[in-house]
Design goal:
The complex is a heterodimer of chains A (197) and B (289). The longest helix of chain A has 6 residues. Chain A has one domain: Protocatechuate 3,4-Dioxygenase, subunit A. Helices cover 5% and strands 24% of the residues of chain A. In chain A, strand 7 and strand 8 form a beta hairpin. Chain A is built from two helices and ten strands, in the order ββββββααββββ. Chain B has one domain: Sandwich (Protocatechuate 3,4-Dioxygenase, subunit A), CATH 2.60.130.10. In chain B, 46% of the residues are buried. Classes of the chains: A mainly beta (197), B alpha+beta (289). Strand 10 of chain A pairs parallel with strand 1 of chain B, so a sheet runs across the interface.
Chain lengths: 197, 289
Amino acid sequence: MSKLTPTPGQTVGPFYGYALPFNKDNELLAPGSPGSIRLQGTVYDGAGNTIPDAILEIWQPDSEGNVVQRTGSLVRDGYTFTGWGRGSVGNSGVYTFTTVNPGPTAPGAAPFISVAVFARGLMNRLFTRVYLPENEEALANDPLLSSLDPERRKTLIARRDPDGGLTWDIRLQGGDETVFLDFQQDGSLDPVTENPA
Amino acid sequence: MPQDNTAQALESEELVPPAEPHAAHDGKKVETQADLSAEISAIGDRYAQALKNGKGPETMPRLDYAPYRSSILRHPTKSLHHADPETIELYSPAFGHQDVHALESDLTIQHNGEPQGERIIVAGRVLDGDGRPVAGQLVEIWQANASGRYVHKRDQHPAPLDPNFTGVGRCITGADGSYSFTTIKPGAYPWKNHLNAWRPAHIHFSMFGSEFTQRIVTQMYFPGDQLFPLDPIYQSIVDQDARDRLVAQYDHELTSPEWALGYKWDIILTGSKRTWTENEAYGDAGDEE
């Protein structure tokens, strides 16, 4: 357990739009370049309405499964894959990234992209993962996925589009709510409700 | 050089999320500060009782905090799923001086003239849960100007824009985790959560740790703000000690003579899960140049 108590998060608010976005923020590589795919989806609230003021970040290994530690995400040179991107949803709640299929970081591991979600009205960022739909054996052996019941598990697995891209929606609330993750082992962080069970 | 994006932001339709749509906009009874304050204190009373009954202190905001009306449909209703971070989550993206120009940390020099308002320096350190400095990482800030107006098309608050102030800054932390911004003290900002709702003056902060699980976006406040008890966003952190962690301290040592008042604010990220190598523990500038 940590020695120091962490600083609390706060909502990103409504006015991040002139501060957090930057040129090519959602293009981890140039659209149309060899190996590039589109990752896209829609962000929904608990009433099933699209959220027009959410911003997402993805962080992923390269197509070989290597964790990249290269600078240059904010000023992309068009050639260096940094593994990180930021994408604002548009007015219809749709986000888009251009990236590569992440590779497995260990033999037999299920490849996934780590995702952080921010929105007006969302008090603190949420973490989740989006898995590639192929390789059912790897998905079945994944420590996180195998700890979830099937209905919830499917919220973390993208659909493969006919053009080779991925579609993955985020539901902040509701029956088919996306699984969001708590990485702190002591259970002290991220209280969801006033009286957590 | 920092971008002059004032005009660009005001003209772009893409950068227009709706402002808080609640009070007096939907035909419902207008909710007053008294209504909201009653809800806020009821939640606070129940938390105080829970502490007395032996519950541990909370350190984060409630995701489910109805007094902030926009949170009602935007919080998960299922408990967050406990997971051990794996591979990619145990690392952070790398940022360096290719990404951020040194001048981006001074929000008062991005235009041709001096911005209006009280010039301030906000500085501190980014540390992980074990007190290790987070070196070579990205810090981003954004804020309203001195009159409480954001450079954002949907901000309709009839306070003046300042042609010499955009309110966006970035920097890369030093080897000791330090950051420093020169800016203008932001004004209080009215929003439409309820009738006569005002946000305490604040600066939005976005930080990365050494691991992606430490990613944080938060808000820094100024000491002694009279709006603290009234603000549902500040109050969504129900624990006073935790709220205090978002309030900077006036620091006369940091104040620059004849120039700017100094405020000190340290950020503690959540604990790290990765086993660190000696090199990492001693700090890496995170920059390949």
